[in-house]
Specification:
This protein has 175 residues and is α+β, with helices and mostly antiparallel strands. Helices cover 25% and strands 14% of the residues. The longest helix has 24 residues.
């Protein structure tokens, strides 16, 4: 074999190796994380996309919330459910409930809105309610896909902020 043939053969082998690495990476053979991190938010403050699965056991972290008698489907948004408290903004412009929990079935996502001051008390009530109705611990709550927020008319200081559950890493301390 001459020098040109060795170079061509080397390039073919290099391309094949690169193709195998790319395929393995795409299909999870390489570069896939071994375990999900403990934090439930990405660096930009948005919830991550992990399922509600205990990373240690691989089992579901919660009861089926849709079977809870206090869970009601949102008549305006198919696949969205109110867990416990419900507010109809067209009728009730001054909510008297401390929090509202919305569950989005397609993404297994909980959106918790704190509706009253003091926010710390409202968050604690929402946390206790959700833990009880899901049948999970504080540690398991931190593995849910969720966001805890408050509207600007309740608190301009904390509006547009992902507050987190009080007991999870990175949570905002509230009054």
């Amino acid at each position: 074999m001459n020098k040109t043939q060795y170079i061509v053969l080397g390039l073919i082998v290099a391309v094949l190796i690169a193709a195998v690495v790319v395929v393995m990476f795409i299909f999870g053979g390489l570069g896939a994380p071994a375990a999900a991190p403990a934090d439930t938010t990405s660096q930009n403050g948005l919830p991550d996309s992990r399922p509600a699965i205990n990373p240690d056991t691989g089992t579901s972290l919660r009861k089926d919330i849709l079977k809870d008698p206090q869970t009601k489907e949102d008549s305006n948004n198919k696949g969205h459910y109110f867990v416990g408290n419900y507010i109809n903004p067209a009728v009730n412009t001054s909510p008297t409930v401390p929090y509202v929990i919305e569950y989005i079935a397609a993404t297994d996502y909980f959106n918790i809105a704190l509706m009253q001051e003091p926010l710390g008390s409202a968050r604690m009530q929402a946390e206790q309610y959700l833990m009880q109705h899901l049948g999970i611990t504080q540690t398991e709550m931190c593995h849910l896909k969720y966001m805890v927020t408050t509207p600007a008319w309740v608190s301009t200081a904390y509006a547009n902020t992902s507050l987190g559950f009080s007991f999870c890493p990175g949570a905002t301390k509230l009054p």
